[in-house]
User: What shape does this take?
Amino acid sequence: MLSKLKQKYQMMRARNITEFSDYRRQLVEIPNAVFLHWQTTAKNEFPGIPSDAVFFTRAAEGLMMFFSCVQRSKQACALPSKAADSVWHAWNDWSSIHLDKFCCKHFGSTIPHVEAEQMASEMDLALANCLVTAQRAEGSWPGSSSVPRLFALDGKLHMPHDYSYFATSARVGFQNMNSRGVGAGKSTYPESLGAAQLLAAGLISTLAYEEMVKKQAQAANNGSSCGSSGSSSSLDNGSCDSGGGSCDGGGSSCGGGCGGGCGS
Assistant: This one.
């Protein structure tokens, strides 16, 4: 009885999230069969992932944010959210044809799913492109003191064994999350998400670069190199790791997961 009431409450909350989402039009068209398939399969691929309707809806909303980034940028993007990726995997497995039709209808083209290992050295640029595109979509300036909702998603959902992103004075970093979805260990600041690399990749203007460098210099003078902002994760006594230049084959060094190329 209690279990049924809890499930009913979660479904009600999920409908409420959908109703007030910027992606309401897309979310209402995701078949319930995708949710049921996700409930059955996601836990096998993503150990410890919750299986309730609220988590699914938040994750699906994150996937819509990512599809929107791919549509806006017309360049390869890397998905920073394993929660969103779990929905993508389940949907693609349930019916890739239906997913392609959905993307064509709502985002103008199909969005190919590319596994992290296939992106290899392109992962760092794809993740940086997704970050800047998501920032612009939300009207924030590169180097702002918070990360876009897509990048903050898994930290808020406490997605097990994932990355929790945060921003500090013109730097974007992340922490690995443990099995409880809590940030643990050192904070990593990938060079690929730093001002110099974003400028070199043509993702930000010279003006934006100068503003980011200025903010970083001010933070250094104030002695605040590790404070977090815009994230629900906790840092480990302020310890930082400034490394993380380019990504390895799995994309783990820059916190990226699967990606999507330009719409085809």
Observations:
- The chain has one domain: 2-260.
- The longest strand covers residues 171-177.
- The two ends are 48 Å apart (CA to CA).
